[in-house]
Amino acid sequence: MTTPPQNELFLINPCASYRLIDAIQNSFTGNPFPHALVTLAALTPVSYRVTFINKKIFWKKKDFSAGKLVAITCLTSAARHAYRLADRFRRAGSKVVLGGPHVSALPQEALQHADSVVIGEAESVWKDVLADFEAGRLKARYQGEPLEDFFSPVYDYYRRMEPAFLSRLGLHIDRGCKYRCDFCARISEWCRSIKMEQVLQLVERIKQAPRPFYLRKPFVVFRCDNIFSNPAYTKELFRKLAAFGVDWGANCSIDMCFDEEALRLAEESGCRVLLIGFETIHPHKYKKTSLRQVRSSEDYLTALGNLRRHRIGAVGSFIVGADEDGPADYLKLLWFLARARLWRSYLTLLTPFPGSRLFERLNAEGRIFSFNWTRYNFFNCVYKPKNMPVFSLYLWFYGVCLVSLLFSPQYITMYLVALFLYQLSYHFSYNFVSWLSR
Ligand code: SF4
């Protein structure tokens, strides 16, 4: 006979930034749940009833009750909302633990809204947090240490997941990144990958998920920061993946596009699309990115040509607002996008996230003028740019964003489909009204 759960644990992924924008984004991304919270659920004993709450937009008074343990993870843009939820749960009589990149960077700030904060990766301390909660003596801080084999303790939980849920969640096969970008606020810099056989077993599970009619094969999303962080491991994975008959997509750094063997193996294993962080079109000017082996935007075009030869689509992300860039550079960016033939491009404004070297530098120079974390969502300027007033930077940024849509086959297709549907509905409604008025 199984005993009923004694304790209740809420795992909350709060809305980031403006909630309406978040709701719109969610409708496009399928609202994936963060792996950090799934990992905590996996490490929680069965004596807890675990409830996942993912980007809930509207909260009612009765949602906040006493006696629970509430764990909230937060990115910087979600911090304000996370703090508000934490305050309300604490007022209702529950205990709140905050964690995530923003909390790890600013634990003192987070502690004003929580009973405890977890700094760094939580796996190594989660059992202590639960034991202390049960004993009624939660500590203010728990310092998580990165574990080399961070996935084995939770692997069984993932393996038992519904294939459809696992497919939506994607596979987070590594931690850390080999680069040290100035603007990146990662918790750990230590690169570690999960065991190959675990990845392959989970891919096998995802294959069992029902798939939409427009997909030829099961599609696996690798949600790691950079699938090419450990090239030897990645190539071995591609070799093994080739036998599985799946398509897949991932984030990767541009060095993979110059590695012929990696590209060939990626193509054979079913790689369909890679999201590449180009960051700037002037890699030689802006040295603090991951692009040391690339000298100019011409090298980017070569890299993209290599991808096309292997029938791999590319999505590119770029950052606007670096100190080194001015109006002429934004025009060059547009010219580059016109020639790059990317599926689509993501343009973001340079954002100094707490925990990044960029934040420390701009803060030390007294150039950050807004500490309203809700604005730290890649689309607001929160610091004084070097080469132009804030208003001009906004004009350039949104201007470049708008014009860049013209070079994206994905947006053009969406626009044409919308236009076609509009014409169709106009035609039918016109004929219908004419028929009625006969
Ligand atoms: S390559 Fe990406 S994940 Fe790695 S440090 Fe740079 S921004 Fe962060």
TrEMBL record:
Can you give the residue ranges of the B12-binding domain? 69-140
* GO MF annotation terms: 4 iron, 4 sulfur cluster binding; catalytic activity; cobalamin binding; metal ion binding
Gene3D superfamilies in the record: Cobalamin-binding domain (3.40.50.280), tm_1862 like domain (3.80.30.20)
Q: Which GO terms describe its cellular component?
A: cytosol
Q: What is this protein called in UniProt?
A: Uncharacterized protein
Q: Which residues form the Radical SAM core domain?
A: 159-389
CC cofactor: [4Fe-4S] cluster
Q: Does the keyword tRNA processing apply?
A: no
The organism of origin for this protein: Velamenicoccus archaeovorus
